[in-house]
Amino acid sequence: MLTANKLMPQGRGLAPVLLKRAATIELDWDVRQKSRFDATDSQGRQIGIFLARGTAVRGGDVLVAEDGSLIRVIAAPQPVLRITHCTAHGTPFDLTRAAYHLGNRHVPIELKPDHLKIEPDHVLADMLRSMHLIVVAVEEAFEPEGGAYGSHEHGHGHGSHDHHNHDHSHDHGHSHAKGPKPLVLAPELLDDHGHA
């Protein structure tokens, strides 16, 4: 079995021709949210994926196998509930309310400007319908939000630890300065980036 333990988010930095030639694997969200799983790629190869704990694989990401070959990940269509607002009885703001209530229940949600998607759940579907939303069962790719603490745009996960007490001295090649630090906050309330 071939192993892959490197992930290139959205294939950044790779030439389009390399992405086009890469083998593919089509995976649903249940598999892509795991950091360790087995899959068969489009060339029939068995791939063992071993990523850092807490890593979620997104559609468009590229895995690098131990032999240097590339495997492009495709988000497989799967059963989901597509939620839209009712144009006759509501407004687009109803989707914001729905996202708030689903978020309070820690439900994975894919957020789009005109709809939400969640995994099938008849109790949640009934709740959303009672809020005058339209809920339809469909088969589509599912890419839920990662959460505020699940990942960081610098390309490394922070997991669920105290964000105020970690060393972040490595160079990102850009500044985190967003203006002067507020003088009203105690220093222990600011992390070493100046975030409150």
UniProtKB/TrEMBL annotation:
<dbReference type="Pfam" id="PF02814">
    <property type="entry name" value="UreE_N"/>
</dbReference>
<comment type="similarity">
    <text>Belongs to the UreE family.</text>
</comment>
<keyword id="KW-0963">Cytoplasm</keyword>
<dbReference type="Pfam" id="PF05194">
    <property type="entry name" value="UreE_C"/>
</dbReference>
<dbReference type="GO" id="GO:0065003">
    <property type="term" value="P:protein-containing complex assembly"/>
</dbReference>
<comment type="function">
    <text>Involved in urease metallocenter assembly. Binds nickel. Probably functions as a nickel donor during metallocenter assembly.</text>
</comment>
<keyword id="KW-0143">Chaperone</keyword>
<dbReference type="GO" id="GO:0051082">
    <property type="term" value="F:unfolded protein binding"/>
</dbReference>
<protein>
    <recommendedName>
        <fullName>Urease accessory protein UreE</fullName>
    </recommendedName>
</protein>
<dbReference type="GO" id="GO:0006457">
    <property type="term" value="P:protein folding"/>
</dbReference>
<dbReference type="GO" id="GO:0016151">
    <property type="term" value="F:nickel cation binding"/>
</dbReference>
<feature type="compositionally biased region" description="Basic and acidic residues">
    <location>
        <begin position="151"/>
        <end position="174"/>
    </location>
</feature>
<feature type="region of interest" description="Disordered">
    <location>
        <begin position="146"/>
        <end position="182"/>
    </location>
</feature>
<dbReference type="InterPro" id="IPR004029">
    <property type="entry name" value="UreE_N"/>
</dbReference>
<dbReference type="InterPro" id="IPR007864">
    <property type="entry name" value="UreE_C_dom"/>
</dbReference>
<dbReference type="InterPro" id="IPR012406">
    <property type="entry name" value="UreE"/>
</dbReference>
<dbReference type="GO" id="GO:0019627">
    <property type="term" value="P:urea metabolic process"/>
</dbReference>
<keyword id="KW-0533">Nickel</keyword>
<feature type="domain" description="UreE urease accessory N-terminal">
    <location>
        <begin position="7"/>
        <end position="71"/>
    </location>
</feature>
<dbReference type="GO" id="GO:0005737">
    <property type="term" value="C:cytoplasm"/>
</dbReference>
<dbReference type="InterPro" id="IPR036118">
    <property type="entry name" value="UreE_N_sf"/>
</dbReference>
